[in-house]
Amino acid sequence: MNGSTGNSSERVGIDVGGAHLKVVDRNGVHIHYCPLWKGAPLKELLGLYNKETTSAAVVMSGELADCFSSKVEGIGFIVDSVKAAFPDALFYGTDAAFHRDIVPQLAASNWLVSVDYLRELYPCAVFVDMGSTTTDIIPVGRFEALKGLTDLDRLQLGYLIYTGVLRTSVPCLIRSVLLDGVPTPVSSEYFACSGDVHLVLGHIKGSQYTSDPPDGGERTVDAALRRLARVVCADLDEIGEQGAKMIAETFWSAQKDLIISGVEDICRKSGTNEVIFAGIGSGLIAKKFGGTNLSGALGPVVDALPAFAVREVAVRDSQS
Questions:
Q1: Which terminus of the chain, N or C, has less C-beta within 10 A?
Q2: The pTM is what?
Q3: Residues 158-211 pLDDT 10s
Q4: Distances from the Cα of 113 to the Cαs of 25, 34, 172, 183, 284, in angstroms?
Q5: Domain that includes residue 14, residue range
Q6: Does some domain include residue 83?
Q7: From CA 197, how far away is CA 244, in angstroms rounded?
Q8: Together in a domain, 182 and 101
């Protein structure tokens, strides 16, 4: 099963996040580091994909970037940027409907369109999408009740955990680490992030570390080890590679436990043991928890599922 339907190859699927732009087209999956708060060239990047088609289906979560004074301002910026490249673009909202203009329902809609696509394939599952910044934990079978939920609602319900593979600050999840048997508090400075942790532990490659490191430096294991040492206000030669790796392992243990606990809670409330995984952390969490990694069924689009899903749902809805 490759997930294709109808004339989806004639349409571009777009997911505009605060940190990454994800595009799915007939040529495959394209992921760009595109930090909106740094004035990333969103219009120019989107213009790369309008050569063969003017048809686009879009979801977003980037409206929350703190360069915008409100979500509505962020929505407006994203809609205008997309329309500069795709004037007839359709935008999927949290009401599970497509819109052509700026409406509040467009905010943080990317998780819902993934569920909209998956609900016919996995109607009883809990869907877990671990991305660069956040982890979604969604009961697919409650689709009607999911409509209209904001990210605030999802945080309160346990459907959104704000931790991901690349962009989570290390002291967000740990307060101390055991170094040579000594409990050692960590600094609250943004010295290292989850990208450093997963690179050092071999969970990702340097090419997958697509966001900016905290110091703006290299995306190498050596550089990541140096950043991790800073978490305890040290140079690497003070705590050694093993000390830096202990910081990474402590963080990963806390992150893994937080996500798995969240998944278990939503499964219990939903009365299901079926769990499906997507996102760049899909293999990582699926391996620890069990369940189905959707990379086997969907291939590379699993890392950009909302972009793929919005394209497929737009085609499905146009044929119904």
A1: C
A2: 0.93
A3: 999 999 999 999 999 999 999 999 999 999 999 999 999 999 999 999 999 999
A4: 17, 21, 29, 44, 23
A5: 8-113+299-319
A6: yes
A7: 9
A8: no
